[in-house]
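Weekly sync, protein design subgroup
Attendees: M.S., D.O., the rotation student, P.L. (late)

Item 1: inverse folding check
M.S. brought a backbone from last month's batch and wanted to see whether the design step gives back something sensible before we order anything. D.O. pointed out we never logged the input encoding, so this time it goes straight into the notes. Structure tokens as presented (227 positions):
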């Protein structure tokens, strides 16, 4: 039985992608756990499977084998149930930021709030989005700017604010500080630590030893397996 405090468990998870002439095995029997109030670094060379592991944990991909558990329950098979968990339980920071370029920074952060249940009034959504942007060090000058006109570092912080605005139980962050300087790295890691102190769990894929040193422990992926 999986402990209630275990927010994420990958149990014997494998993932293969079709490719010619042979399938590519991105993950090979990965088992890991993230508990409440725990921040864990996932390290390893490029191509080792870190992003794939986060995509499986965030229910963006389905495993070829093994099981993904969220809060002790196997991830649902139906897409509606998976979408509900992606929005209410998981906050994901994508490596490519995944901001929508033709809308404003504040509108990007409001997106997960649009699907909150119960639905929040528009004014409250705007208030929460402003607060989230302020926490990542972005001021009023960024609120109405289209994301496509922002620097990479600004887009990254918008993506982090969007992931945290719903107070997710599980935070999945793929290289969340790659475009940031040392001061901003400290701010972002402080926000993630505060979220974990409040009971969330975080899995952070990173190459940065400074990020890993802020975490409670580190896991290393090599060629799709934990070593």
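Designed sequence read out in the meeting:
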């Amino acid at each position: 039985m999986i402990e209630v405090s275990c927010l994420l468990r990958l149990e014997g998870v494998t993932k293969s992608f079709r490719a010619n002439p042979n399938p590519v095995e991105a993950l090979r029997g990965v088992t890991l756990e993230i508990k409440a109030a725990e921040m864990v670094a996932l390290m390893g060379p490029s191509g080792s499977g870190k992003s794939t592991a986060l995509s499986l944990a965030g229910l963006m991909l389905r495993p070829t084998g093994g099981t993904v558990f969220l809060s002790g329950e196997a991830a649902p098979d139906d897409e509606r149930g998976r979408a509900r968990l992606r929005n209410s339980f998981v906050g994901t920071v994508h490596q490519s930021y995944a901001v929508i370029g033709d809308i404003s920074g504040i509108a990007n952060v409001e997106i997960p709030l649009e699907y909150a249940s119960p639905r929040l009034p528009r004014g409250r959504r705007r208030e929460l989005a402003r607060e989230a942007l302020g926490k990542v060090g972005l001021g009023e000058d960024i609120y109405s700017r289209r994301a496509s006109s922002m620097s990479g570092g600004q887009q990254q912080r918008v993506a982090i604010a969007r992931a945290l605005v719903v107070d997710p139980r599980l935070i999945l962050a793929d290289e969340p500080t790659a475009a940031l300087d040392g001061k901003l790295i400290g701010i972002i890691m402080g926000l993630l630590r505060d979220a974990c102190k409040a009971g969330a769990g975080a899995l952070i894929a990173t190459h940065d030893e400074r990020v890993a040193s802020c975490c409670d422990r580190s896991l290393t992926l090599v060629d799709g397996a934990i070593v």
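Discussion: The mean pLDDT is 94. Strands lie at 6-17, 24-35, 39-43, 65-70, 73-74, 90-93, 170-174, 201-205, 217-222, 225-226.
Action: P.L. to compare against the previous round before Friday.
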